Amino acid sequence: MNFIKNVLATFVGIILFCMMSFFLLLIIGVVASAGSSSSGKSTKSNSIIKLDLENVSNDYGGSIYIEDFDYKETNNDGLINVLQAIDYAKTDDKIKGISIENNATSLGSTQRKAIVDKLAEFKKTGKFVVAYADYYSQGEYYLASVADTVYMNPMGSIDFKGLASEVLYMKDLQEKTGIHMEVIRHGKYKSAVEPFLQQTMSDENREQLTVLLNSIWESYVGDISKNRKISVETLNNIATNLDARNANLALQNKLIDKIAYIDQYQNGIKKALDIKYDDDINEIDILDYIKDVNLNIKKFSAKDQIAVIFAQGEIQGGEGNVNTIGEGSINRALKEARKNDKIKAVVLRVNSPGGSALTSDIIWREIELTKKVKPVIVSMGDVAASGGYYIACNANKIFAEPGTITGSIGVFGMVPNFKKVADKFGVNAEAVKTHENATGYSVFEEMSPKYKQTLTESIEIIYDTFISRVAEGRKMDKAKVDEMAQGRVWTGTMAKQLGLVDELGSLDDAITYAAKLVKTDDYKVSLYPEYEVELADLFRKFLGMSVSSVKEDAIKSEIGTENYELLQRMNYLKQSKGIQAMMPYHLNIK
């Protein structure tokens, strides 16, 4: 009998082992292919790069390490990889030009600017850049404006009309549902929670948004003016009168160079490549090109290194991942940079609207420790606000793009309250306690004066710490920081005038500065952080991906995309733990 039991146990064990091995290989396969649509193509002679950025969304594609199997995987699909590839293509004899064809991307304004600047450098080598679209959004047109020749479909148009920002207010919704958000904040401009406090936009928020949008627009239209050799005044008139609403008007106003169909556009490329019209164009997608030349881009023989650490996404704490900032991965990267003798300086690339005040301070401390050993330079991306600015303020030098959204120096605390819902449905919460404040806060009771006082005290302490960190890091008077803070957001251009940043420039500029600071011209750029994950986490993520995607699509189709975004916004703020240093990140600029 025991023999049979042992045989069965062994048989079952073998089956389970095979199943686990299968799922393990499947998961590793998913991880290995995540974030990249590259098919491993090789670059042929007389080729062009197709600048398809649909699958490029982050500054950094991310590197993960699976502890259970000592397995590492790096995704080279970040903006930094695209910029490095375009830079490499300048001297690649196989590449003759770059095609921006029906480009659709979720990249932000400063990310697009980085690509525009890199394409302008590419053109200076004598190689060509051309662009075609059936329809141009404002962001897509901005990217295309750097091209030598801009084509558009005869039935196309350019959505060139200026910028607008839409903010959803939910005070009445709370009244109707009975779900109330208890909010305590410091900063009259701290509009991250304003939609829960009132039904209309405050004068302060309208003021800051107006200034913000005008500043971003000036930067945007200034680059187009330079690229297209059209005055800013003329471009503003075109936007006001919608004079790019069809192909003929766009051509007449010199926003495009040619009206053509896609086959005519391709014939133009064939002419530039000096090949016959019935020949195929040797075209390689940007992500395929990155994969093909990746080893050539890296300078393995370089004597020194500049570490670029990417802090991107909301600050949530924990390990973090490619879309969120956690002290685990960021601080580990900072410590490694400190201990590695080959790394001479650190560039912290911040692209974050903020989040957990506690996590922000933990990262701030690690930067302080790193500064004592090696210089830390900050490069700000699309947004480095609130907690994002907190972790940047003590750097040796801060670079920002003109359109970077920064500042938002303020904090808030918010908790949901279901008292009205409970009363409506006859729910009464009773508590038994050993001490006066043992219950803390109950979502089924109105916030007590004592709890409100305690929360307010915590917020005031964190706010005071925040402005103290800024004053110390920026070598400014604390009272002056408080005056310009109050949760208000600024663009990079305005922040430089106020002394919140040092220079206007790109990530490349920050890296170049860091190299000069440590007196090295023989260096390679090493990308961090590396995110540590366990097999169990990957397994849960793998099983949940398809279910989550189906659920999201179902909800969107049922209630609409805008209502779904509203729901997501409410859920995020309800689930936020601890006091937040968060900008009004749900800034929908159109």
| Uncertain runs | 30-38, 542-550
- The fraction of residues assigned to DSSP E strands is 15-25%
> What is the annotated CATH architecture of the domain at 303-532?
Alpha-Beta Complex
CATH superfamily of the domain at 303-532: 2-enoyl-CoA Hydratase, Chain A, domain 1
User: How far is it from the N-terminal to the C-terminal residue, by CA?
Assistant: 74 Å
Total of DSSP H or I helical runs spanning 4+ residues = 21
- The helical percent reads 40-55%
CATH topology of the domain at 303-532: 2-enoyl-CoA Hydratase, Chain A, domain 1
Evaluate the radius of gyration. Answer: 27 Å
- The pLDDT mean sits at 85
Name the structural class. alpha/beta
Can you put this structure into words, describing what you see?
Helix content is 46%, strand content 19%. Among the domains are: 47-161 and 242-295, Alpha-Beta Complex (2-enoyl-CoA Hydratase, Chain A, domain 1), CATH 3.90.226; 303-532, Alpha-Beta Complex (2-enoyl-CoA Hydratase, Chain A, domain 1). Helix 16 crosses helix 17 (478-484). The longest helix has 32 residues, at 2-33. The strands form seven sheets. Strands 11, 14, 16, 17, 18, 20, 21 and 22 form an eight-stranded mixed sheet that branches. A six-stranded parallel sheet has the order 9-6-5-4-1-10, sandwiched between helices. It has a three-stranded mixed sheet with strand order 3-2-23. It is α/β, with parallel strands linked by helices and 590 residues long. The N and C termini lie far apart (74 Å). The active site is at 190 (proton donor/acceptor), 386 (nucleophile). GO terms for molecular function: serine-type peptidase activity. Pfam families: Peptidase_S49. This is Signal peptide peptidase SppA.
